[in-house]
Amino acid sequence: MKPSESTHAFTGDSGQNQLNPIFCREGEASDFPLNTLPPGESLPETAYQVVHDEAMLDGNSRLNLATFVGTWMDEHAQRIYAESADKNMVDKDEYPQTAAIETRCWLMLANLWHAPDANNAIGTSTIGSSEACMLGGLALKRRWQLARRAAGKSTEKPNLVLSSAVQVCWEKFCNYWDVEPRYVPITDEHKVLDGYELEKYVDENTIGVVAIMGVTYTGMYEPVEQIAAALDRIQADTGFDVPIHVDGASGGMIAPFLQPDLKWDFRVERVASISTSAHKYGLVYPGLGWVIWRTVDDLPKELVFDVTYLGGHMPSFALNFSRPGAQVLLQYYLFLRLGFDGYRRVQQASQDVAVYLATEIGKMPAFDLWNDGTDIPVFAWQLSKGYTKNWTLYHLSERLRLKGWLIPAYPMPDNLTDITVQRIVVRNGLSRNLAESLMSDIREAVGYLDRLESPMPTEGLVSGFTH
User: pTM here?
Assistant: First the structure.
C-alpha cells in the first residue's frame, strides 16, 4: 500500500516528524524524516517518545469489533512475552524446551479435536491460520498428486472446492500454488457450504473440500458432518475419495468448549487436517496458528525437510523459516492457566455478550439479523428491506466510528453482493457493560440517521470488511 492510500493513518503533510520541545536535548535533532533513514543517531528516550506518540494515534483496541485478532493478555503473559522475545522457533537445537512445548501444545489440540491416536497425529505451529491453511492445502495437493502418479494418471488441473464466503487466504493458496478454486455460492436458502449440489463441483481432480468453522463474513459454522455425508454419497457413485480440511480459524477454539457434542473434527473420518488461529479465540497475541493432521500418513513425507541449522538437525514444514517462539510459550501458558473449564468460561462469556447484542439489534425495526451469535461469538445484520432511503449501514458505521467503535459494513460475497451487512466480533475483553454502552450508541446513531430529511451523501464511503 502506498502512503497516500492509507485510509485512516495520520501522516501529516510536511514529510517530517517533529519532536515535542519538552523532549528535545541540546545538540539533538528536533525532527525526523518520515520516509528516509535519519542521517544520525538519537537518544533511546527520544526515539521511544516519537514512536510512542505516533502509536498513540491508533484506535482503542477494546472498541475494535471488526477484527478477530486478540488484543489483550494478562500481566503474567506479558512478562513471558518480554522474557522470550528473542527465541527463534525454528532453532530447535538452541531452544529445545520451546520446541518440546510446541509439541505439547499441538498434542493437546490433537486430543481436544478427537484425533483417533494423538501420538500418531502430526502438527506444527505457524505464523497464523493463513500459513496453517496454506500447509493444509499443500498437503492435500501433494497427496492427490502422489495418488494420481501411482495410478498412472495426470496431475494437471487440480481443484479445491470451497464456499464463496471463504477467507482470502484460500484464494491466495489457489493462486500461489496453481489450484483451480471451485466456489460454491452461498444463497439465502444455503447461507453456508452445506453439501447441497456438491456433486456439481467435485471430480477426479478435486484435491479436497474446505469446511469453515466460523465463516468470516457472518460467524456461522459450516456443517462438517453434513458435507462429509455428501462426499460419502459422491464416493459411492463415482469412486472419488475426497478429504476435508477444516478451517477452524475461530471455531476450532470455540466448538470444543461451547458445542462439545457437535461433530466437526477428527470424529468425522473424512477430516484429514484442521487449522486454527491461536491469536483469535486461542486468546494469544498475534501471530500464531496451528495445523494438525489426523495421522502422520496424512502429511506426505516429501513436504517435510530435514534442515541442518546452527549445529543441529530438525524437521521443518513451514512457509516461514525464522519466526518468534514467544507466542508458542504464551499458548502453553494459557493452556496451563485456563485448562478446559477456563477456556469454556471465557468463550461462554464472549458468546453471552454476542447473543445479548444480537438480540437487542434484532429487536430494532431498522435491522434484520443474518445470524444470532450462537456459533462463534460473531453475528451480522442487514438493513430491513424498505426501511429507509436516507442512509445505509456504511453511514451507521461512520457514525459509530465517531464514538470510537469500529464496526465494519461490507457487501456479501458473489451471488449476494447486493446485500450489505454489518458484523460484530465479540472477543475476550468486550464486557456486558461495554456492550450495553455500544447498544446505547447504536440506538443514538440510528435515531440521528432516522431524523434525516434527505439522503446522506455516498461519496467516499468504503467497505470496512476486516478478515
Answer: 0.91
